[in-house]
Every structure is written in C-alpha cells, then in structure tokens.
User: Which sequence fits this backbone?
C-alpha cells in the first residue's frame, strides 16, 4: 500500500506540473512546446512529437517536436504524410495510449542508423470530446513495452494536452472575432460620423448655391460658407481618427501606461492630463488594445466637447478585473438628455461589452464627466 500511494502521489505531482505548465499560455505554439518539454522532463523521455489535425482539411501536420532521432530530424520527408499510428487513429482504432514497436512504426521500420536506439514509442490519441485533435508520440531508448499504469498516465496527459490545444484554438478564434467586431464598429462609426457630416456639408453647399442666385446679403453667405468649412474640418478630424484606429499595433511596443501618457500629451486644447496606474497585473494584448482605444475615444470627446482644464486617466489592474477611469473637470452634460452617439458613448459601451465588461458614465452640467470601464478577468483554466 505505501508503494502504491507513493506511485499515485508521483503521478498526481506529474499531472499537476504539466497542467500548470499548459495553463501558462493560450498561444498554441507556446502551449505545445511547453507541454512537450514538461512531459519529457517529468517522465524521463528521450523524444516526443505531436501531430495535429488541420481544422479545415483534416490532414495531419507535425505541430511540435522535442529531440527527434537524427534520422527523423534530418529527413523532413520522413515526418510528412500519414503513418501507422495516424492511420490507426484516423480509423478510430486508437482508443487510448498504445505501444508501437519499430516493426509497426512506418517511419522507423527497417532503419538502423540514426534512430538513437529508439525501438518503441507510445502513441496517445488526442480528442476534444468526440473531435479528433491529433496524436502525441513519446519515446525513450530505455523502453520496451510500457506498463498499463504508464499508458494510463499518458492517457491523462493526452487529455490535458487536448484541453490546452482546444483552448488555444478557441482563443485564436476569439481574437479573429474581435477583429471582425472592430471592423464592424469602425464601419458603423464611419457611417454615423463621416456619412452624416458629408450630407450636412452637401446641404450647406446646395443652400449656398441657391443663395448666390438671390439677393441674399453677404453676411448670410459668409455664415453658410463658415458652417460648411467647420463641418469639413470636423470631417477631416474624424477621418484622421479613423485612420489611426486602423493601425495594427496601437501600443507600438510600449506598455499600456506609456501609450496612455502619450495620448494625454497629444490631447488638443488646454487640458492637462495625469495618468495614474494602480496594480501591475499583466493583461492580454486584446484587452490592452481595447482599453487604449476606449481611452483614445474618451480623450477625443474631451478635446471636442468638454473644455476641460484637468483630466485624470486611472488604470487599475488586479487578478480579478481591470478598470479604466477617465475623469475631467469640463462643462459636463446631462446623460439622460443627450444623444448617446453624440459623444461616442455607443462605441465605448460596445467595446466594453465585447470584453464581457460594463460601461458607466457620471456627468452633470458644469460639473465635469467621469467614464468608468470595468472588465472582469477570467481565471486561467
């Protein structure tokens, strides 16, 4: 019984270490490299490699490898296409971790040189529920056939890796969805601002054209021209802001706080901007970029409408949530009696909700405005 308990504790320790390593990254390549390194170190493996099934073509490809024998490492053609273990997996006959000897392995069969003495490897099928994810192969020159207990442990390792792979793929898809949502938001903004302003400019010019044919006094004509020029300038500013929004890397290798400080320095008008940071919990690229965009939108609103003297940008980051507050001492407004799209409030609200967060605003005439964006941070699983 003590020996069995000791073995069980060892297995749990190995699985816990592998699970912890896999949870450190949602990047697929990093997750695979980390997993193979950790599995090799903890189980004393000579080599390991993993095949994944392409999500669109369902064809296998070598996704990651650790210390392949020279005959496989130096001959890429040897690692291409289907093989015994992949065929068995594809047919549904590889139900769990299984021993594969050199005779059965179509990649090692008949080879003598360059195998580093590898005679057996184990193939572990990877599934996400019923979905075929790939095959993990692990081997050691000291192995013959693995025991049932070893194979059972490798099955559990395979389950952990399947979860990590699927999570990484879902994360990549969420980034793609976020990019699509961003394009839709920008399209709406272009329609709501540039489109409407162009219509207004056209109406002013048509009015001016009609006035030129009448006996209208010069002051009225000048006022119409000034209105059209002002609208054109606003439109140009909106167009410039839209172009900035299209830039692929808004932080440009800066920290979020550094990027916010630069935004504050570039704000138009006489406002002085102070940036305050509370906590240093790391944030994902997507959340950082979204917070930057929201701060940018808020500062644009302040520059255009608030006539503020002081602005505070406060970023609070904890393991549970991140909060962005933008507060000014400007003229303020009544949130209940203002068009929601006038100050970009719809866009800010949508950005927050895309991240599963909330957006709140406090303002009153002559008492400034406070915007608060609260984004919960899900615990890594």
Assistant:
């Amino acid at each position: 019984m003590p020996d069995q308990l000791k073995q069980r504790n060892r297995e749990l320790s190995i699985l816990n270490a592998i699970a912890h390593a896999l949870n450190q990254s949602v990047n697929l390549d990093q997750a695979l490299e980390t997993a193979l390194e950790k599995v090799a170190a903890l189980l004393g493996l000579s080599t390991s490699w993993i095949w994944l099934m392409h999500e669109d073509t369902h064809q296998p490809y070598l996704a990651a490898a650790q210390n392949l024998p020279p005959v496989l490492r130096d001959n890429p053609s040897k690692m291409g296409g289907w093989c015994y273990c992949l065929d068995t997996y594809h047919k549904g006959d590889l139900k769990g971790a299984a021993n594969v000897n050199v005779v059965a392995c179509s990649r090692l069969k008949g080879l003598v040189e360059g195998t580093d003495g590898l005679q057996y490897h184990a193939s572990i099928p990877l599934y996400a529920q019923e979905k075929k994810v790939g095959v993990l192969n692990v081997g050691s020159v000291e192995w013959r056939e693995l025991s049932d207990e070893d194979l059972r442990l490798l099955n559990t390792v395979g389950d952990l890796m399947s979860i990590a792979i699927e999570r990484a793929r879902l994360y990549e898809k969420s980034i793609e969805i976020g990019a699509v949502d961003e394009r839709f938001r920008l399209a709406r903004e272009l329609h709501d601002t540039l489109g409407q302003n162009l219509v207004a400019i056209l109406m002013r010019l048509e009015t001016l054209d009609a006035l030129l044919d009448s006996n209208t006094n010069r002051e009225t004509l000048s006022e119409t021209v000034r209105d059209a020029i002002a609208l054109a300038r606003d439109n140009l500013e909106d167009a410039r802001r839209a172009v900035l929004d299209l830039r692929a890397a808004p932080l440009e290798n800066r920290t979020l706080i550094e990027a916010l400080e630069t935004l504050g320095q570039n704000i138009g008008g006489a406002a002085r901007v102070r940036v305050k940071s509370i906590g240093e919990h790391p944030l994902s690229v997507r959340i950082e970029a979204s917070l930057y965009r929201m701060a940018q939108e808020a500062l644009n609103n302040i520059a255009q409408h608030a006539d503020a003297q002081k602005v505070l940008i406060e970023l609070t980051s904890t393991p549970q949530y991140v909060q962005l507050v933008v507060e000014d001492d400007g003229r303020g407004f009544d949130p209940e009696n203002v068009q929601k799209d006038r100050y970009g409030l719809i866009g800010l609200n949508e950005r927050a909700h895309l991240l599963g967060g909330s957006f709140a605003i406090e303002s009153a005439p002559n008492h400034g405005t406070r915007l608060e964006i609260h984004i919960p941070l899900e615990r890594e699983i």
User: Anything to note?
Assistant: The mean pLDDT is 77. Residues 194 and 235 are 6 Å apart (CA to CA). Strands lie at 47-53, 60-66, 98-101, 120-128, 131-139, 272-278, 310-317, 321-328, 358-363, 369-376. Residues 148-212 form the longest helix (65 residues).
